[in-house]
Amino acid sequence: MLVSWKWLQDYVSLTMSPDELAERLAMAGLNHEDSRPLGDDLQIDLEVTSNRPDCLGHIGVAREVSVLWQTGLRVPSPQPAEAGSPVTELTKVSIECPQLCHRYTARVLQGVRIGPSPAWLVERLATLGIPAINNVVDVTNYVMMECGQPLHAFDFAKLAGPEIIVREARPGELFAAINHKTYPLDAGMCVIADAERAVALGGVMGGAETEVSAATTDVLIEAADFAPLSIRTTARKLILHSPSSYRFERSVDPVGVEWASRRCCELILQLAGGRLAQGVISVGQEMPAREPVVLRLAQLPRVVGIEIPGDDVRRILAALGCEVTARDDREMTVIPPSWRRDLSREIDLIEEVARVHGYDRIPEDVGVPMAPSHRSDEDRVLGKVRQVLLCAGFDEAITASLVSDETAAAFSPWTDAAAFQTSTPMLKGADRLRRSLIPSLLEARRVNESLGNPVIELFETARAYLPADNGLPREQWTLGIVSSGDYHRVKGVVEGLLGVLRGGLRLEAVETRQPLLDPLKSSELRIGGQRLGYLGELSTDGGKQTGLRSGATVAEIRLDVLVGLADLIPKYTEPSPYPAIERDLNLVVAEAVRWSSLAETVQQSVGECLESMSYQETYRDPKKDGDGKKRLLFSITLRSRQRTLTNEEADQIRQQVVAACHQTHGAVLLGA
């Protein structure tokens, strides 16, 4: 928000230096960005947060100054003289989309003389970087920068009817804006129309066909309250942002709409002459009364750490525009002003009192009571996930939740329903809520490959958005992994993660077929029959589709399942003091036998003496083993917790494994 030093003095006495003003405003929440002299004025650039739209006008900033320095605030009380016909005989207004426009007011001035604005008005707008157009348009800009309420002036004679219809845009409707560009409109956008066409894009920009020109003699002044979400969506969709849309996106003071209309007409009468039609047309929703907020004075020292006298609390809140309706030694009932929609809770009032009283007046060593807290199970599981993957050599990635339609369709193992489409893409073409993290991580890997990065091991924890029956997406908390390692390495990482979260969990690998993945090197992961996720190496076609130069393995895991399985109470297990014995096995099996099912058979046949099992490789020799056969080479590590195993016992267990694999899978020990 650009502020004029001279203009600010119309509303409040500035007895301090500009540097002192900037420092005190910054301490109260209006950060100072820059100040620079312009002519005999000073332009002050203040950062206004989105919850303080009341400070997007000079009066709002002046109110802050008056509160901080405990000085008077001078706000004009416009009373424009009315003459001629009632405004209801000249025009009418109807709102067909009350969800997009909460209130619309119209006044009509006749016989105005369009011309250049006086020097004082031109200079004040120039200090804010606003060029002068003519006396009527300049007044609308002046009032907007004075109170934060945007206005618009129509050439009344160019309105068909003449009447004002506030409605939704029709699909495919074209709108010619005053920037001399034409925009295609969508349903859901709010337009101001006459009987024939759209003459303004509500809350964003006026139309070229009804703009005020040198030939204008009658003007209709619009002051309205538009729905913030509608304005934000429209401005982003059309890439058409304006000072008006900036303010409507953050909401305006509903009570200030009428004040701004009167103020605008008063200044036009002074600068352009003419006659103001009697009355005002005001249509829209009833303005709801603000709910009272109870402030307990005991909460101030509990939250802020210092005592603030009750009289000071009342003075501060009253200066901010609040109405204190009841008060005793323990609490007060406060009704916030219409321009402070951010004041709705007790803690909001406490924050206001603290910032105006001065954060710098709170000692650094003040004692603020603390309540013990603990991390949620979700946070603790996420911490362990990050620890395991970082130790395994992975880097954490953060990718966008919105992707292109092509990217969204590349890999979606959780659902076949179409991805949700947004009306405002985050990036060009990125208008789909992703149903999987894998395509985004593969794109990150492709970019890193193109930059010549040698190690590209990535993981991400984020939400996948899965369509649901209620019209809203089901947000699935998901872990995505992309690695240059093979299927078994990534499976080992997943198993290691499960081991950290809860010992004894058995990971089941079930056959699956997913786009991008090699059907012989991919699987659906389950625990106790519950679907945990998917794992697999990219197929040759999948690598080409994603533009990767080298192979990659991906995994996607449901984190909510991990949270439900995790045992977060640390337990100590004493290691066995007895030595381990290792045995290698090379089994010839049919091509259809999966390693995961064979490994499960091995685990069941060995029992509690199995400490670990390590896959080595798969080898095929049709000449020696026959067609449709393959060799699976792996090793098992045996250890007892009660005694030292003998070689004879280890050989016997090895024979049990071979027998069980032969019975279940038709496996034959090589050389047997």
Describe the fold and architecture.
- The protein is α+β, with helices and mostly antiparallel strands.
- Helices cover 31% and strands 26% of the residues.
- It has 20 helices and 32 strands.
- A seven-stranded mixed β-sheet has the order 20-23-24-28-27-26-25.
- Strand 18 and strand 19 form a beta hairpin.
- The radius of gyration is 36 Å and the shape is elongated.
- The model has no long low-confidence stretch (mean pLDDT 93).
Which percent range describes the beta-strand content? Answer: 25-35%
Largest sheet: 7 strands, mixed
**What's the helical proportion of residues?**
25-40%
Q: What Rg is obtained from the alpha carbons, in whole angstroms? A: 36 Å
Oligomeric composition of the shown chains: single chain
Overall number of strands: 32
First-to-last CA distance: 85 Å
Put simply, the count of helices is: 20
Strands of the widest sheet, in order across it, are: 20-23-24-28-27-26-25
The 3D shape can be described as elongated
* Mean pLDDT across residues: 93
Overall SS class: alpha+beta
Low-confidence region ranges: none
